[in-house]
Amino acid sequence: MILVISEANDITTNEVIEWLNHFNADYVRSNFTSYTKLNYIQLSNDSCHVALLDIEDIAIKKIWNRRGGLRLLPTSLRGKKNLYPYLKKEENSLLKSLEDILNKKVDYVGSYHMEVENYKLDYLLLAKEVGLNIPETLITTSKKEVFQFFEKHKSIITKDIRYPIKVNLTDITIFSSGTFVVNYDMIKSMEEDFAPTLVQKKIEKKYEIRIFFFKERLFPMAILSQNDQKTAVDYRNYNREKPNRNIPVLLPKKIEKKVKDFINLSTLSTGSLDLIVSQSNDYIFLEVNPQGQLDWVSKNCNYYIEKEIAEYLIA
């Protein structure tokens, strides 16, 4: 039995499911937007057993957590506004423990736990540890420090430390633009002290690389973002009318090894990793997303990743 955890309209999951159907695989899909019945978690001095959706852990061969965590709270509880926030915290704590338990019992790919606790600083330090280059980075609450950093590097950028900003102004919701350049006037207008802010040296790049990885397999794609002023700083400032060209790319063997070392040390089993290639041909680590989009990588590069995932799950 294969357990797939995702959301109902996730394109990647739907395509993997089509392959599982093609291979006549025995699977159950649970979408995090729907209620999943937790039959039990039973602990004793001698054993630990789990049953979800009337399926005992001994019957589960592999779990693929594509997106999100299970929803263990019945729908009827959502209307209890005073109690629901507390119950969600309890559920969240239980989900992390449940994932840890199942991880030791079955082949568990993906992680709700790692997605929720995806911290840029931790991964930058880990990348540095395996020998990958990282951008010079400053996190500070001091205007003076930002000025000194700016004077040193002349060109700097900023991005969120963990969560992209979402601000609701009456009926208009504004999302973070991801990464943007910080100039002198911006710094001058800042207060002397402010919330912790991350800035990095701006690196002039030739192109960006998105690497989707699944277990030991790497699927790298070059994003030619420098050909468009709108996406030159960050390809996520998408140009919908004239999208960037995305092509398969081969990583140098030494970079491939460092990337795999990073993945092994991070204990991530799947995700998307972002690099840039500088004008001097240095490969520089930016960040990693423990779940990550793969549909566009698969289709732009003809990797057929969805088929490979299905084949892994049934093996």
UniProtKB/TrEMBL annotation:
Keywords: ATP-binding, Nucleotide-binding. Coiled coil: none annotated. It comes from the Bacteria. Gene3D superfamilies: ATP-grasp fold, B domain. Residues 124-314 form the ATP-grasp domain. This is ATP-grasp domain-containing protein.
